[in-house]
Design a protein that fits this description.
Elements (H helix, E strand, L loop, with lengths): L2 E4 L11 H30 L6 H23 L6 H20 L11 H12 L2 H20 L11 H81 L2 H4 L2 H27 L10 E3 H13 L7 E4 L2 H4 L4 E3 L2 H17 L4 E8 L2 E8 L6 H5 L16 H12 L3 E6 L5 E8 L12
Parallel strand pairs: 3-5
Antiparallel strand pairs: 1-7, 2-4, 5-6, 6-8, 7-8
Helix pairs in contact: 1-2, 1-3, 1-6, 2-3, 3-4, 3-5, 4-5, 4-6, 6-8, 9-11, 11-13
Amino acid sequence: MNSITSAEPVAPSHIDTANRKNLELLIQLRWMAVLGQVITIAVVHFGLRIALPLEPMGAVLGALLALNALSHLWLQKRLQVNSQALFLAVLLDVAALTVQLYFSGGATNPFTALYLLQIALAAVLLPGAGAWLIVAATFIAFLGLIGINQPLAVEPPASLLRLHIMGMFVCFVLGAVLLVWFISRMTRNLRERDTYLAELKQRAAEEDHIVRLGLLASGAAHELGTPLAAVSVILGDWRRMPEISQHPEMMQELREMQAAIRRCKSILSGILLSAGEARGEAPSVTTLHRFLDEIARDWSDGRPAGTLQYHAGSGALGEDVTIVSDQALKQVVTNLLDNAYEVSPGWIRLNAERRGDMLRIEVLDLGPGFSPEMLENFGKPYSSTKARRGAGLGLFLVTNVIRKFGGRVSAHNREAGGATVTVELPLAALMYREKDRG
């Protein structure tokens, strides 16, 4: 079954959280560093019997544990993290490594190569100035460790070279593993941020397109109002003419024409209302059941009986609730029904149900279904299989309107034939509140 989903709701988790995720990785790295230092100190002090100042080195480990705990609590209260926080975290790690190296031989300690790991992390995480500051900090620390340190007492001295080579090997393995793992994960976070920014840019372009379409539709609605009013007056005059009033067939056709004119006026009123030109009027308050019933009834008027099968009610929708009769949402459902009617004029099904706090509306048809290209570009402007200029704007507007409600739109081809378009949106976006009066 082919399917596509678009117009995902914008949730807090969708904001730019790359720096936050990277700081979480630095915290994980610090936990691993503490564990690695505990193991290394134990092996060197108790296994190799090389005396180390356990108290000050243990104090550094305790400070790292406290820093991690505070960082974790701080992150729980923040969704976004700036580059300054990442710089401070890397700088503190450099300082902790420098202190541990000071108590364990200074520059002669093979684990000075871990400075390169800090530099690599800074190059990935920080802007140019921050990365170079970390480089300068490691340079100064390394130079300071050459002249200021507590040397290791190794007996016999000849074994110092062998221990140094072993330490270099352990440091190389550790650095290689951490570099591959953490930098690959940090790079993935940065790619997600780039994707997020690209989506924001695309959304801004789409919303600008919608604004221009709204202005065009509003202007067209004003322009069409006058000729429609003239046609309505002429039809009224015709109904009073004896030549027409005495012919039932012609009177029936006139009534159908007048019904079509009323529908056109209703559509134009909806366009103007959606464009925000019905200011000063109190919003129309209705109930969820009545709102959906009106959509189905209004759309069925003027079309063959039995075309639309509407399935809803208290069983599917649950307890009725008071909502604001939103013209934009009504136009969305009408647009979907119109699209389905074009490909399946004999049968359309409209389902409406409530799932928890979400309203789910489905429009099913027996048409040829969506092509793979249409599913892939579902909701994008001018993406349509209809061979006419400007086609594809309907679904584009549908997805953007539902996105404004905090909902989502999805489409898939049915195995039995035809297609289904599903709209899901939170009921809270429609609920009536007292402040809606003003």
